[in-house]
């Protein structure tokens, strides 16, 4: 039997969360907002969005900040991808800032899939930016699971996935 999941959400812990995505071509603002809301229910668009018109599509950026990571973290636990999350969320970590991308196509189904840096996936990306003190410790705590009692993990350890997204061997 496992204990309760640690209920971190970033918002109440001094971590500012910004979520952003760019609409291009025939991307529907309503459908993209809906897929983001599957992961970040408090994501809210301010202002009017333009639906794409044939021959006259323009890029638009959807952005909101001061969001909760609660649903995002619950999905990481449910999907059991906490080590992948640790590596992906900390790949661009500086002392008080990190940025990472997830796939919009996975978010449509309420799933999280991290993008491999440099890839341009079909369906677009959702960029997540975290800013705050002790960010390394917060990421390690937010992605902790019982398996780390046996195989400890930390940001940028020797068990981290490589730059291409391939897993390292633990032997």
Quaternary structure: single chain
The termini sit apart by 28 Å
- Classify the helix fraction into a percent range: 10-25%
Beta strand count:
4
Element-level helix/strand string: EHEHHEHEH
Characterise this structure.
The protein has one domain: 50s Ribosomal Protein L5, Chain: A, CATH 3.30.1440. The protein is 25% helix and 16% strand. It has five helices and four strands, in the order βαβααβαβα. A four-stranded antiparallel β-sheet has the order 2-1-4-3. The longest helix is centred in the first third of the chain and has 11 residues, at 29-39. The radius of gyration is 17 Å and the shape is globular.
In brief:
The protein has helices spanning 29-39, 70-79, 82-90, 104-107, 135-142; strands spanning 16-23, 60-65, 97-103, 125-131. By secondary structure, the chain is α+β, with helices and mostly antiparallel strands.
Helix and strand topology:
Elements: E1 16-23, H1 29-39, E2 60-65, H2 70-79, H3 82-90, E3 97-103, H4 104-107, E4 125-131, H5 135-142
Antiparallel strand pairs: 1-2, 1-4, 3-4
